[in-house]
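Subject: for your reference before the review

Hello V.,

The reviewers asked for a structural picture of the protein, and I figured it would be easier to keep everything in one thread rather than splitting it across files. Below is the amino acid sequence we used in the manuscript, unchanged from the supplementary table.
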Amino acid sequence: MKRRNAVAALGLALTMTVTGCSAMGGPGDGTVTLNMVESLTNPARTQVLKQLIADFEKRNPKIKVNLVSPPTSQADQKMQQMLQSGSGVDTLEVRDITVGSWSNNGWLYDMSKDLKGWSGWRGLTENAVEAATDAKGRTYFVPYGFYGMSLFYRTDLTAEAGHDKPPRTWDELVEQASAIQDTSKRRYGYAFRGGPNASSNVTAIIEAYAADRLDPANGYRLTDGRTVFSAPEASAALEKYVELFKKGSPPSSIAWGYPEMVEGFANGSTAFLLQDPEVIATLRESKAIDEKQWST
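And here is what came back from the structure prediction:
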């Protein structure tokens, strides 16, 4: 297999990329070793990837896959460094927030010709197929899943605070989180995200406030074509987000990224967590809270 200057991608709003071959096996044995780098490193999720890789290697005995799992908070930066250097990565996960810049830099391989007539398209939803192709017909990744954020909440703590239902609006979330917050007991309301990739939660609240005017085809834009961040509601949304931090979140969460948020909920110190469904696997392994104590 020839080394390519660009990497091919497969993913989700996560993507996998193939640049070429990093290493070959012993002389003349024909074995190829590919380095694959994951983006959202998580013990339970990494195990699933390893199982998929094992199945792939069984079906393709001349191809070995070396899985590289950087810490989640450093993964995107690590992959960008590897892509810039042009070495060490053949296949990688890219997300909707990285695929644009990485493909514009020529780091991702356009697989549109390779995938023309591919039978696997029939196994994907219409939305997944649409997401895989950009406006110019290029395919830089194959989606294998979509992340939809859910509000994870402590059923016991919300009940103790006098609420029979979880919050349905950001206003209600602030109300319930602040009611549960008790710093003397080291008990906090919301697992705030103020550190790496904090923009994802900021965008979520702005989109919620401007929901009636969002472009259904592009959540970053309004129906009039302007960016969602220009919406008049954006300012009010940010004020509410700051209020949530001040009234119902751990002070240290100003620096929390994904791992710290999940740990804060899994260890029982916070009552609310806005995250993707992959968190479920982590929560089921928690020794601090059982499945009867939380829901979404």
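For the response letter, the relevant points are probably these. The domain at 150-295 is CATH 3.40.190.10 (D-Maltodextrin-Binding Protein; domain 2). The chain has two domains: 7-131, 150-295.

Happy to draft the paragraph if you're swamped.

O.
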